[in-house]
Amino acid sequence: MHEIGVVRQVIRTVEDFAKENDIKEVSGIVLDIGELSLVVPKYIDEIYKITVEGTILEGAELTMNVIPGMAECEECDEIFNVIEHEGYCPNCGSFEKEILSGKDFMIKEIHVPEDEE
C-alpha cells in the first residue's frame, strides 16, 4: 500500500506551505484523486488519521474528490469513462483512446481557521 507514502508527501507539502506562509494550524484539506491515478481513496481515508498524528494536519478534516477517468476514443471521438467501460469505447469497441482526466493526484485546498487568516 503506497498510500502511506502519498499521505506522508501530502504532510510534507502542507507543512512546507504552512511554514512559508506563517500558518500555525490547518483545519482541513481537500484532495483531488483521479480514478486512474493509482491512489485508492478508501486506503487514504483508512490511514489518514494515524499518519497525520503529531503533524500540522492532526485534527484537520480530510475531504476527497474523486475525479472521473475520462477518455476520448481515437477511432470515433466518443468521450467515455475508462473505468466504467474497462478501457473500451462503448460506441465502437476500440481500446485506442486519449486520456482526458483522472490521472492526477493533487492537494486542491488547504483550509486554515479564520483567526489564522
Question: What keyword list fits this structure?
Answer:
117 residues, alpha+beta, three-stranded mixed sheet, three-stranded antiparallel sheet, 2 helices
Give an overview in words.
The strands form two sheets. A three-stranded mixed beta sheet has the order 2-1-6, covered by helices on one side. Strands 4-3-5 form a three-stranded antiparallel beta sheet, with no helix packed on it. Helices cover 25% and strands 28% of the residues. The protein has two helices and six strands. It is of the alpha+beta class and 117 residues long.
Mean pLDDT: 94
Cα-based radius of gyration, to the nearest Å: 18 Å
Quaternary structure annotation: single chain
What is the helical fraction, as a range of percent?
A: 10-25%
Please give the number of β-strands: 6
N/C terminus separation: 36 Å
- Uncertain stretches of 5 or more adjacent residues: none
Note the overall shape.
Answer: elongated
Strand content: 25-35%
User: Which strands sit side by side, in order, in the main sheet?
Assistant: 2-1-6
Order of helices and strands: HEHEEEEE
Name the structural class: alpha+beta
Number of helix segments? 2
Largest sheet: 3 strands, mixed
